[in-house]
Amino acid sequence: MEMVPQIAAAMLLICLLGGCASTQKIDGVYQGETPYTIETDTIKRLKNIPSLGQPQITIAVYDFPDRTGQRKPNVKFSQLSTAVTQGPETWVINGLKAVGGNEPWFIVLEREGLDNLVKERQLIRSTRELYDGESDVKNQLKPLKFAGLIVEGGIVGYDTNIVSGGVGMRYFGIGVNEQYRTDQVTVSIRLVAVQTGEILISTSATKTIASYSSGGDVFRFLDMSTKALEVETGVATNEPVNYAIRTTIEHAIHNLIYEGIDKDLWKFKIEE
Predict the structure, then answer these.
(1) In a 3-state reduction of DSSP, which class is residue 264?
(2) Are 125 and 74 in contact (CB under 8 A)?
(3) Which residues pair with 192 in a beta bridge?
(4) How many whole angstroms separate alpha carbon 231 and alpha carbon 171?
(5) For the whole model, what pTM was predicted?
(6) For residue 1, what pLDDT is reported?
(7) 3-state secondary structure 65-92
(8) Which residues contact 251 (CB under 8 A, 6 or more apart)?
(9) Which domains does the chain have, with CATH numbers?
(10) Mind listing the pLDDT tens digit for each residue in 195-204?
(11) How would you classify the pairing of strands 57-61 and 149-171?
């Protein structure tokens, strides 16, 4: 009976630390949440930017590479997987198209998949000529649009363990501990004039990525070193790196818009 309080404490510790799990067990397999769409606070800020006081701006986005060269940390063996996403240009395009909300500022042109686009246009052209006999200029495809501005840049920094620490306590075989760690990602973005090659705007944004873990354990002899009770539990929360990169890119685009206002590259619409 003397061990009832310890066992009760162990069960309470498990409930407290494990009760916040976001997974569910379906047919014996643990699964996460169903797919969903996240609208970040930074994308809302882009949508709430006032309307453009001039015609829409045609802009092109090429690749937005990872320039950090960082790999996922692993103390046991070398990792080939990169620490950050290799497709951030998708979020650059989404961010630019979100500027202005229902009255978008930019006409964003396809450049990342330009080879596929050119191949499809060649296929359409050859099919029309072969089967429909459409060699007339009137029936030819319209030329692709060209952009006056190009958005370039990339992920230029990913630093791990900027700040790390923790705290723990143990009393009569019952212990609890907490640990935390912060990483940091930096994104650079610039606006280039196609006609002159001049870099009109160059800006960057940095975000901290937080990780947190807590755990507890109980170790107690039940019967003079012949029986022992040992319970361990814990939970960790890691801010998704992809989410952090996405919001950092969107914040950099927000900076780019207002730097363009300061440099008279574009202007807000004046409400009458």
Answers:
(1) coil
(2) no
(3) 150, 199
(4) 15
(5) 0.75
(6) 47
(7) CECCCCECCCCCCCCCCECCCCCCHHHH
(8) 42, 205, 207
(9) 41-262 (3.40.50.10610)
(10) 999 999 999 9
(11) parallel
